[in-house]
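Subject: Interface between my chains keeps coming out wrong

I've been trying for a while to get a sensible model of this assembly. When I model each chain on its own everything looks fine, but I need the whole thing in one frame so I can look at the contacts. Pasting all components below, labels as-is. Any help appreciated, I'm running out of ideas.
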Amino acid sequence: MLRRTARRDRMIGLFAAGAVLLNPPILNLVGGTVFGWPARYLYFFLAWAVLIAAVAVVSERGGGPADERDRDGQRR
Amino acid sequence: MSQPTIVVVAIAYLLLLFAIAWAVEHSSGRISRLTGSSIVYTLSLAVYCSSWTFNGGVGKASQTGLDFLPIYLGPTLVFCLAPLLLRRMLRISQANRVTSISDLIGSRFGKSASLAALVTLIAVIGLVPYIALQLKSISSGLIALSSGVMTHSLAGSIMLDGAFWSAIVLTIFAMLFGSRSIRPGEHHPGMVVAVAAESILKLVSLTAIGLFVVYGLYGGFGDLFTEAGKVPEIRMIFDQIPAGYGYNWISMTVLAALAVFCLPRQFQVMVVENVDDRHLNRAAWLFPLYLLLINLFVLPIAFAGRMMLPEDTDPDNLVLALPYATGHPMLALIAFLGGLSAAASMVVVETTALSLMVCNDVVMPALLRVRRLGLSSRSDLTRLLLWIRRAAMVVIMALGYMYMRHDSAQFALVSIGLMSFVAVAQFAPAILCGIYWRGATQAGAFAGITSGFLIWCYTMLLPSFARSGALDINFLVDGPFGIALLKPYALFGLAGLDPVTHSAFWSLLINTAMLVAVSLAGRQHPVERARAAMFVGAVESGEAAQIWRRTALVPDLMSLTARFIGREKAAAAYAGFARSRGVDPATAVQADAETVLFYERLLAGVIGAASARVLVGAIVEEEPLGVDEMMRILDETSRLIEANRQLEEKSQELEAATGELKEANSRLQVLDRLKDDFVVTVNHELRTPLASIRAFSEILRDHPHLPDEERLEFLRIVVTESERLTRLINQLLDLSKIEATGSMPAQRAPVDLAQVVRESAAAVQQVFARSRVELRIEVEADPAVVIGDRDRLVQVVINLLGNAAKFSPPGSGRAVLALRRTGRDLELSVADNGPGIRAEDREVVFERFRQLGDTMNDKPQGAGLGLAISHRIVTQHGGRIWVEGAEHGGAVFKVRLAAAPRSRARAAERAGGSYLPA
Amino acid sequence: MPQRPEDGPHGRIYMATSVLIADDDPSISRALSFLMQREGHEVRTVTDGEQALAAIEMQPPDVVLLDIMMPKGNGYEICRTLRANPSYDGVRIVMLTAKGGEADQRVGMALGADAYISKPFAIGEVVSCVKDVLARRRGRTAPPERARRPKAGAANA
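Reply #2:
Try treating it as a single job with all components included. I did that and got this:
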C-alpha cells in the first residue's frame, strides 16, 4: 500500500517539477548562448531528458509487491 | 525525380505496411505476438506525431524558435501522471467495454445516446481541418519533390489533384486497416503494428535528415549554431523572449496535455487497442523519450533552412527542401516517406476512430430506433455495420478534402493542428470530472461541452472562414454588427493573446464552469448516479447492476448478441461468464440484472454503449424502481464498501504493526545475544585474574618454605592480578555510567583539546618512562575547542596513550600524540611503532573484550574495555574514532571531533581556557 | 608419528609423567607449572592452540591441561582434533575454563575430555584431578579402551 502511494506521489512530484521547470517564467530565465549553442534549447532538452530519466526510474523500479497488488486489482 | 516514380514508391511503401498488418492478423508466429509488446504499444502512441510534427514543427521553429516544444511537453507531463490518470481511464474503459472517446463520455453520463452523438459531432467537425492538413502536407511534399517548387504559390489544380488522389488512397487504406471485420473490443492489431512501423520510419527519417544537416551541411552542432548566431533574426530567437512565450507557451502545454488523451486517435491506440495495462508503465517514459528524440533535430534543421534556402520557401517544406536543394534527392525521398508515414498513420487511425464513433454513436442508434426498418430483428448486422463505417470514412475524408480546398492556404500546418486541439480539449472537463467527481451530471456535461464547442466555433472556426474570405472580414476586425466586445479574437475585451490561447482560455473556462455549475444546480437521475458511482470506482459493477432490476430471457439475449458477434463467440463468452458465477449455462433461462449487464457490455464492445443500450432495452423488461428503494440500495452498498475499505485499512495497519513488532523483536534478540556475550566475557575476564590470585595464595599457604625469590615472584603476581581485577571493575563501572547517559555526553561545555592533550600527556608520563617509550607531542591547533565532557575526553586520550605505551617495543618505542585541524573538524591522533593491527581487525578492536591475540605477544594489561569505552565516548560526542596502519608498521588511532562554533570557542577563550559550562 | 620406545604396557610406570600446560594467561600458566613440577612431572607450557598441537605432535604428553578460551584454536577444537586421531588415545585431557557453566562442561566431556576444572580452582583440586586421570590411565587395560571409543564417538555425533 505504502509503496504504491509512494510511487504515485513521486510521479506527481515529477509532474510538478516538469511543469514548473519547463514552462515560463522559469524557462524564460534562460537566454543567450552557451559555447555558441542557444542556451534555452540546451536547457530545455537537458531538463526534459532528466525528467524522462527520473520517470523511467520511478516507473520501472516501482515494481515489486505494490505492482503485484496492482495486477490483482486489475484481474478482479 | 519524376512524379510517377515517387507515387509508385509511396504506394509500394503503403502496401508494405499493409502486408505487415495482414501478417500480424493472420499468422500465429512471432509477428502476431508483436502487439503484446510494450515497445509496439509505445510506438503506436507515437501516432501523435503527425505530419504536423514532421513538417509543421520545423516550419514553426524556423519562424519563432522553440515555440513548437510545448506540443510535446504537454504529453510528457500527462504521462508522468500515467499511474493516476491514464491507468484509471484505461481501467474504466476496459471494464465498460468502451470503444471510443464518445462512448466513454456517453456511458459515464447515463449511457446517453445524445451526449455521445454530440461528442462525435464535435470530434468530426474539430478534426476535419486536422485531416485536411495531412492531405495538404502529402500533396505539397509530392509536388515539391517532383517539380522542385518549394514556395507557397503552387499552381492550384496540381495541388488539388495531389491532395485528391492522396485522399482516395488513404481512404482505401483506412478501410483496409480499420474496417475489414467486426471484432469484439474493436482491436486492430494489424493497424497497431503498422502504425508502430511507421513511427520507426518517422524517427529514422527525421534523424537522418537532422544528421545530414548538422554533420553534412555544417561541421556539427556547434558550427551550425555559431553560423546561425551570426544571422540577426535568428540571433533574436536566442536572446529575446518572444512575445508569446508567456501565456502562449503555457496554453500550448495545457492543450497538448489534454489532446494526448482526448484526440480520438490517441484514445484509440492508448485505450481501445491496449492489451495489457502494465504497458502504460513502460510508455510513461518511453513515449516522452520518443517525443524528445524526434524533436532533437527540429531546431537545427529549421535554422539551416533559414540560412541556406531562399526567403520564399514554404517553411513547412524545409525538411524536404534542404536535402533537395543541396543535391541529395534520395534523402529528400526519405524525408518525403517520413512525412508520408506521419500523415498516413494519423489519417488511418483518426478516420478509423471517427468512423467507429459515427457508426456506433450516431448512425446505429438512430437506425435502431426507427422501428420501420425492423433492424433489431434482422439476422446478420455485421455487414451493415462495416458498410456504415466505410461510408463514414468516405464522408470524413471528403470533408477533409473540401476543407483543404477551401481553407488550406490560409494557415500554416501548426495553426490548423492547434485549432483541432482546442476542439477536442472540450472533452477533457467532462472526462476528468466524469472519472473523479461523482456529482458530475449528464446535464452538466451537456452544457459544458456544448458551450465550449460554441465558443470554439465562434473564436476559431468562424474566423478561419472569415480569413479565407467566406465571411466578411469586418466580422474579425470590428466584431459582429460592430460590437467590439464580441470580436472573435478579443472576446469580452480580452485582447493581447494569440487566437489559440484566447480561444482555449474562454472555451475551457466556460466549459468547465458550465459543467460544474449545472451539475451542482441540478439533480442526478438515479440510474445516472449509479453509473457515476461505478465510474468513480466506489461501486462494483455487479452491485450497480441490481439497481436496474432488468430481467430478460437468456435465449433472447443470446440470439441478439449472436447477430453481432457470431453464435460461437457469443456462446463461448456467455459460458465463461456463467461459469465465473457458478451457474450452469445450459439450464439458466431467466437472465438477472447482472447477466443483462454482461450482454449489454458484450454488445457495447462491438457497436458502442449507446447502441447496445437501445438494443438490449428492446428485449428487456425494466421494472420500475422507486427512488426510495434505489437510494436504499445505493446507501447500503456504499456503507458496505466504506466498511470494507476501513476493514482493509485496519488489517493493513495491523499487518504493518506486526511487521514492526517482529523487527523490534529480532533487534531485541540481537541485543540480548550481545548482552549474553557480554556477560559471558565479563565472567571469563573476572574469573581469570581471580584464578591466579587464588592459586598463588593457596600455593603460598601450602608451601611455607619456598625460596624467597619464588615467594616474591608469586606475591608480585598476586598483586598484579588484583590490580587487573580492580581496573576491570572500574572500567565496567565506567562503561555502565557512559551507557547510562545515552547518546549524549553527560556534560556539554567548551573544551580545549590542546589542554586535554597536555594534561593527558602529563598523566601518562610515568607509564611511558617505565616502559621506556619515547612520547612526542605535536599540537598544531591551539586552542582547539569542542563541545563536550572534558573528563571523558581526557579518559579517551589516556586510554589511547596507554595502548601506545603498552604495544610499543620497550627501549626503541616511539609514540606521537598529535592534534590538528582538518576543515571544520579537529583530529587527534596517537601513533605507535608497535606490531600494528591487521586491516581486518581494525573495526573490531573497538568492541568490548576484543582480544587480538595474534598481534599480542602476551596478555594485555587492560581488560580489553579501554577502546570500547573510548569508542562510546567519541560517538557520544558526535565524533568518529578509527585506527589506521602507520608507515613503519605501527598503529595510528585517530579521533575526529567537530570544532565548536566560533562564538562558543571565543566564549571559552574569554574564560581564559577554564571550562565553564556554557 | 614418532613412537616412544618406552611406550610399552609396563615401561611408562617408572618414567616421569609429562604434562603439557596450554593457557594464554601467563600467571595461571605459571601457577600450574609450579604445581605440576612439585608433583614431579615433566612440564612444558604453550600459550595458544597452534603451539599446543605442535607440542603434542612433537612428543605426546601424558596429560594436557587445556584452557578453553585461547587464541588460534580453542580448547574444544584441540580436544576434537586429538580424539579424532587414535594415536593420541593415550593422552589424557583436562579442560580448564573460566566460563564455569555446566553446559560447557558437558560439551567438553562429550568431545572426549577426561576431566573438567573451572577457574578459579583450588590447587588441591588440580593436583588430585591430574593424579586421578593418570591413575585411570595406568589401571586401564585394552578392552575398556575399545569400549570407550564408540561411546565418545556417539556423543560426538
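Reply #3:
Confirming on my end. Confidence is low (pLDDT under 50) at residues 1-14, 140-157 of chain C.
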